[in-house]
Design goal:
This protein is of the alpha+beta class. It is built from five helices and four strands, in the order ααββαβαβα. The N and C termini lie far apart (79 Å).
Amino acid sequence: MKCRRPWGLLQLKYIDGALQERAVIYQRYVELLDAALPALEYIKPASNIEWNYSYFPVLIRADSAVSRDAIYAELRKHNIYARRYFYPLISAFPMYRHFPTANVQHLPVADEISHAVLCLPIYPGLPVADQRRIIEIIQAWFIDAAHAAEPALVVNG
């Protein structure tokens, strides 16, 4: 415990720089997503709050062409470690699932979100090339899904 206190105090020297760097990375994600995947939802911080840019969550809804878990798995194949947030729901843990209020029927919004949120990597030092690669991988999944959904061309002949 005594060792952690000085370490934490030392880190305070660097927090402002880290937050500024995260803000730049966050904004770059916004620009890349808006250009490549305008339908993908993400949080737009309100102007009246002080944002720490600790996460970059995107929402991949159930009615989307691809699933959050498919994108998560594809990113992992490329050694990109995104995180499924709010998953699983705490109400699904063994110590809580027996409570009547833990029934997923009582938690429809939480259940939907638990299967829809994916937090993209965001940390000081994240290279621009890596961010572009992350977006390209996600974009490729959406493009492939769109092509798969197109009706097959039938040539009469």
